[in-house]
Write a structure and sequence with these properties.
- By secondary structure, the chain is of the alpha/beta class.
- The chain has a single domain, classed as Nucleoside phosphorylase domain (Rossmann fold).
- Helix content is about 25%, strand content about 25%.
- It has eight helices and nine strands.
- A five-stranded mixed β-barrel has the order 5-8-7-6-9.
- Strand 3 and strand 4 form a beta hairpin.
- The structure holds 1-O-phosphono-alpha-D-ribofuranose (R1P) and guanine.
């Protein structure tokens, strides 16, 4: 009935992975966190950690990018049970998009209700500076436009509907809460909001591409997050996401700046 895509994992595969993890920890996470490039230190904030290397988790892909440790860490944050991906998967690593979004479905089957994603991104908005934090309010899923979309293939209704809505992808209450807390903490000078654009990578953008993306309404550009958000929303989790602006996109032919992963990942 369906074309044999053999790219993703079935509901039963995902359930087997989630059950394998739940059998080895008492942590019952309601919040799932994804650490972006160079942001793996977030996972170190979890207390009473139980950590698994991706290579030991059934069905999990392996991290291949510097700055993505490849560990799934369970623990507590301010007394709340959490699970944290110390390292994510990107399209350019060569996995099918259905595989690199598997952790979102595992999160769901672990009991996660809210996903918090972080990424390192290049700033396209001329008002942004390096070090700014952008609360993501929407995205442009460019690989998705071209059919490289994580929900391509048979739809299993146990995860979600065939045609999920994405106009409410980023939870507005959580965005407002983050903005309010940020202001309370005095983060006003570097807290922004904007639209994140996902590209496939791995090359950074040309000047013409940056100019085009800016005209299309993108405030920051990266190679992740949108594919995860789509799958998280498909299976009904709330989503909150942040970009750390690690570099400014080069928009000017006179510029000597060159984007590089060392700068992005902090080493
Ligand atoms: O989006 P994260 O995983 O933070 O990583 C970003 O940093 C890498 C480029 O330096 C790309 O993978 C880009 O997507
Ligand atoms: N595509 C892309 N990804 C990034 N990740 C961090 N900075 C950048 C950037 O400038 N472009």
């Amino acid at each position: 009935m369906f074309p044999d895509l053999n790219t993703g994992f079935t509901y039963e595969d995902c359930k087997a992975t989630a059950d394998w993890l739940l059998a080895q920890t008492d942590v019952r996470p309601l919040v799932g966190i994804v650490c972006g490039s160079g942001l793996g230190g977030l996972a170190d904030m979890l207390k009473d950690q139980v950590a698994f290397n991706y290579k030991d988790i059934p069905n999990f892909p392996q991290s291949t990018v510097h700055g993505h440790a490849g560990r799934l860490v369970f623990g507590t944050l301010k007394g709340r049970d959490c699970v944290c991906m110390q390292g994510r998967f990107h399209l350019y690593e060569g996995y099918p998009i259905q595989k690199i979004t598997l952790p979102m479905r595992i999160f769901k089957l672990l009991g996660v209700e809210t996903v918090m994603l972080t990424n390192a991104a290049g700033g396209l908005n001329q008002d942004f500076k390096v070090g700014d934090i952008m609360i993501i309010k929407d995205h442009l899923n460019i690989p998705g436009f071209a059919g490289n979309h994580p929900l391509v293939g048979p739809n299993d209704e146990r995860f979600g509907v065939r045609f999920p809505c994405m106009s409410d992808a980023y939870d507005r209450e959580l965005q407002q809460l983050a903005m309010d807390v940020g202001h309370e903490l005095g983060f006003t000078d570097f807290l922004r909001e904007g639209v994140y654009c996902m590209l496939g990578g791995p090359s950074f953008e040309t000047i013409a591409e940056c100019r085009m993306l800016s005209k299309l309404g993108a405030d920051a550009v990266g190679m992740s997050t949108a594919h995860e958000v789509v799958v998280a929303r498909h299976c009904g989790m709330r989503v909150f996401a942040l970009s750390l602006i690690t570099n400014l996109a080069v928009m000017d032919y006179d510029s000597e700046e060159k984007a590089n992963h060392e700068e992005v990942s902090g080493g």
